[in-house]
């Protein structure tokens, strides 16, 4: 498990390096890396980072899930209910093929935690390797 400090604002946090480090520690060769964030208000995205796509994703989430008082689930900070809807759009898991000990990501793909919940500033991420034999 890794801990990710997501802070007190909407964020897309790169965890690609931590995932690669995990695979190195396990001695993984070929199989599947499963990434799971056990929180009701965070997700895992495979996305290009560093070129503005992370900002675009957050802008899209803000447009789809406004931070206002429309949400039935309304405890916590303003718009907290949107954080509980977000995992239906950005799921709390991803599974990535591993080939010769490396994630078989596309050229520009990265692994990121997406978090709109400003009430929880640290997230746990569970990493599992399933050996492909």
From TrEMBL:
Lineage, top-rank taxon, reads Bacteria
Residues in a coiled coil are none
* InterPro entries to which the protein is assigned, alphabetical: UPF0047_YjbQ-like, YjbQ-like_sf
Tell me the Gene3D superfamilies matching this sequence.
YjbQ-like
Pfam families (alphabetical): YjbQ
UniProt xrefs under NCBIfam families: TIGR00149_YjbQ
Query: Which family does the UniProt entry place this protein in?
Result: Belongs to the UPF0047 family.
Protein name according to UniProt: YjbQ family protein
């Amino acid at each position: 498990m890794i801990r990710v400090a997501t802070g007190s604002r909407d964020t897309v946090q790169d965890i690609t390096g931590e995932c690669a480090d995990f695979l190195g520690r396990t001695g993984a060769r070929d199989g599947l890396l499963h990434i799971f964030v056990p929180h009701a208000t965070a997700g895992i995205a495979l996305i290009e980072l560093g070129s503005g796509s992370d900002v675009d994703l957050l802008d899209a989430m803000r447009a789809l899930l406004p931070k206002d008082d429309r949400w039935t689930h309304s405890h916590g900070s303003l718009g907290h209910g949107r954080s509980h809807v977000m995992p239906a759009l950005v799921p709390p898991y991803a599974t990535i093929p591993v080939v010769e000990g490396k994630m078989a990501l596309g050229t520009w793909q990265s692994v990121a935690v997406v978090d709109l919940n400003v009430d929880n500033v640290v997230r746990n991420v569970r990493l599992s390797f399933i050996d492909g034999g």
